[in-house]
């Protein structure tokens, strides 16, 4: 251990997405290759001597306790735990986290010393993994609110690879199997007999960890919600969601020395007639078993919606992935062009 193929794969995966900024400490980690990376893992992160590093991924993450703070993390999967190596800036991002994060070492004034905090979720504590729509993200759930993390990969390939690696590692865990149900038919396994409503598709792994995938009803619910936002202008039957993608909305910061821009996480939904931007809650739904009350905000909150027929042009950037798109819409919000002439545009 480790094999040459694994070393090469981990080295290739150790790249920070170009559009996201991270602290110096995480840049140091991203600069490590091959043996140096494995030695760094065993010397600084691993909790047990005989655990093996199996997978590395860079992803934005959200914690259940701090649902509004998205932070960049280096996610390391070993045979014992999942480690989230986080930006030190995350500790200072929200003052209400003092009970969640241990701040003992976070007051280092020495600028040459860069701290990263590491959040550890042991595989034995893992209860379920919820995969988001179109594999754009996944949520890992442990036994308490402190142990719920969503990885916003924004990439179906990265999600799929991580899930495959996680399943492989969980197969190594020795757990007593769950008792088999007495009569195992389709309806008792996938549906609720009381309501007649199909539940989300569940795969129960041999380690007793549930892998929960969205079913077709989730798309139906989303289509209904989108139709509602369109004020019933369209027939729900004819409304098709063509694209669902987690993206960033670019807000240019005015008056700064450099032409900087801030990235606001958004869910983009394209239908056959409209383009929508939503603020989505990626961490609170579906409700964890211990939740005593529903989340403070809805899963989807409409930010902007425009008709495709008002789309004037689409500007494409020439940089490599991720691609920047600018949608230019006509400013005319009302079809009746003569309406505004009643206003006195020519007075003082």
TrEMBL record:
Give the GO terms filed under biological process for this record.
Golgi organization; lysosome localization; regulation of protein localization
* Domain PLEKHM2 PH residues, every copy: 114-178
Q: Name one GO cellular component term.
A: endosome membrane
Pfam families on file? PH_NISCH_C, PH_PLEKHM2
Gene Ontology MF terms? kinesin binding
Subcellular localization is given as: Cytoplasm
Q: Where is the Nischarin C-terminal PH domain?
A: 241-347
Give UniProt keywords alphabetically: Cytoplasm
Q: Which positions carry the signal peptide feature in this UniProt record? A: none
The name of this protein is NISCH protein
Q: Which organism is it from?
A: Phaetusa simplex (large-billed tern)
What gene is behind this protein? Nisch_1
């Amino acid at each position: 251990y480790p094999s040459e193929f694994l070393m090469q794969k981990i080295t290739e995966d150790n790249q920070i997405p170009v559009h996201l900024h991270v602290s110096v400490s995480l840049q140091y980690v991203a600069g490590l290759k091959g043996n140096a990376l494995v030695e760094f893992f065993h010397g600084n992160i691993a909790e047990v001597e005989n655990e093996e590093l199996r997978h590395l991924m860079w992803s934005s993450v959200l914690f259940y306790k701090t649902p509004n703070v998205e932070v960049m993390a280096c996610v390391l999967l070993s045979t014992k735990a999942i480690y989230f190596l986080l930006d030190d800036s995350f500790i200072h991002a929200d003052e209400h986290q003092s009970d969640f994060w241990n701040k003992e070492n976070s007051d280092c004034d020495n600028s040459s010393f860069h701290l990263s905090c590491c959040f550890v979720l042991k595989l034995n504590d893992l209860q379920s993994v919820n995969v988001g729509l179109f594999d754009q993200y996944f949520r890992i759930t442990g036994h308490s609110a402190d142990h719920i993390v969503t990885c916003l990969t924004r990439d179906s390939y990265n999600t799929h690879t991580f899930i495959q690696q996680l399943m492989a590692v969980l197969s190594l865990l020795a757990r007593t199997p769950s008792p088999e149900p007495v009569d195992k038919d389709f309806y008792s396994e996938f549906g609720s007999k009381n309501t007649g409503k199909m539940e989300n598709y569940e795969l129960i792994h041999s380690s007793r960890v549930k892998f929960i995938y969205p079913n077709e009803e989730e798309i139906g619910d989303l289509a209904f919600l989108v139709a509602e936002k369109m004020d019933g202008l369209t027939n729900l039957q004819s409304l098709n969601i063509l694209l669902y993608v987690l993206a960033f909305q670019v807000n240019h910061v005015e008056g700064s020395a450099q032409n900087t821009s801030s990235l606001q996480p958004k869910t983009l939904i394209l239908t056959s007639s409209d383009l929508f931007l939503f603020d989505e809650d990626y961490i609170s739904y579906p409700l964890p078993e211990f939740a005593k009350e529903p989340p403070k905000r809805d899963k989807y909150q409409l930010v902007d919606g425009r008709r495709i027929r008002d789309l004037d042009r689409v500007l494409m950037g020439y940089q490599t992935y991720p691609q920047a798109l600018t949608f230019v819409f006509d400013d005319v919000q009302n079809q009746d062009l003569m309406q505004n002439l009643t206003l006195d545009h020519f007075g003082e």
